[in-house]
Amino acid sequence: MNSKNYAVLLFPLAIVFFIGLSCVVYLQPTNVDNFGRFSYYRNTNIKKITDPTLSDKKRIGIYENIIDALEEPNLIPNRYRRRPETQHIDCGRILKKDKDYIQTLTGANRIPLIENRLLSMSCPAIKERIHANHKNFKLLKSGGVAFARIVYSDYEFIEKQVQISWHPQNVFCFAVDKKSQRNFHVKMQKLGECVENIVVLPGIKSKKKTVFYQFFIATESYDSSGHNMNLGHKRCMEALLQFPDWSYMMHLQNNDVITKSVYELARIFELFGGANDVNIGREIDQRRVPGLKWDPKSMKLFRNESKIDQKVLNDPMKVVSGYVQSSWSRAAVEWLIEEVDITIAMNQFNQTFYACDEQLFPSLQVNKEYGMPGHYTYECMDQEFGYEQITRFTKWASGNINNCVTKTVRNGICLVGIKEFGAISRMPAIISNKVLYHKHFNDPGFKLNCTPAHQIWKYEDYL
């Protein structure tokens, strides 16, 4: 082959090389990589970050939208920063349930999120993403909200949940699953070190410094059967009581999404007036190991038994089943940590094979004789009424996948999709089913009326 032929062959290769080099230079980190821009996709392996079922045409379309988003200035100080993959989406049309538009974002057209493997984890970058200095916050007159969350994966999702709920008066505690990947442990530890009102267990958080006992910060494992979940939330309650400026605490798990703004949550909890919000239903069979004792005396529940009636001490606890996700007044959290010792009860429930995390806190909520602030009562169970909480929204498949808008089920629960965003945005995500009294609570012959005075809202009403 002569030199002229070599030139013909090498010329187009050189063009491809320089175009590729230009793209790499364009995507190198810059001073704005705190925003997750420009550096976002450098050296990213397409096969690993996209749905393998996506066509090349669809994949190209996704990256075109990403490039447009990266080139678009995002300098408005008080607006929520969306990910590059989704910045082109018109949320207004989704919330208005524009079916034709939603069709372009669902099914084969759904948009996969791409992990930012070059996400800056410096303290300035983390703080800028969560609470930029130029953001202004209004005082929460009734106090902030504490979030106690068990986590095991998806750091960027967890950080986003902090971002949308962040306020100087709000506080966050994360109990990390010991089985989580090393990279997730490292990022969560960094999050706790960098942000002043975040505790990552078993860190000791103070205004001056944070001390971590070991590099891998988790001390126990959690699983889908609920083992150690109550322990993780208990440890978060202990850790967050040192922060004085919050009035309510929420128990959450990894993939729970907060659907209300900071100020909406504060107002909702103000209206609660000290009441706890806990899902309550009749005890589900096989949720307790046979042969164990469930009276407060045997469980050494009360730290000072001299103040407790002997009948209360010796009668078995009324046990109910409910959800982990719940909302607790600060007074209730103080009672759970300072007035009672739930260690034995927690360990006994933890011996259950499945859903061992769904009994302890709901049961303490309905045993009114125990005196927990903001408690409810077992009386409505006797009247064949449960107590549907308003902290957690769940759509059960009830054995039929067609009951789910997304036609997708996990552990019997419908997964939420973009088609439902319009409905969810209008739902009273935290509401109260009113309880009316026939007479004053202290009157002789008082009887609790558990029948709500209004029609209970239904998920289907909002679709």
TrEMBL record:
Pfam families xref list: Branch (PF02485)
Molecular function GO labels: glycosyltransferase activity
Keyword Lipid metabolism found: no
Compartments, as annotated in UniProt: Membrane
Alphabetically ordered keywords of this record: Glycoprotein, Glycosyltransferase, Membrane, Transferase, Transmembrane, Transmembrane helix
Keyword set includes DNA repair: no
TM helices/strands, residue ranges: 6-27
UniProt-listed InterPro entries: Glyco_trans_14
Protein's recorded name: Uncharacterized protein
Native source organism of the sequence: Caenorhabditis brenneri (Nematode worm)
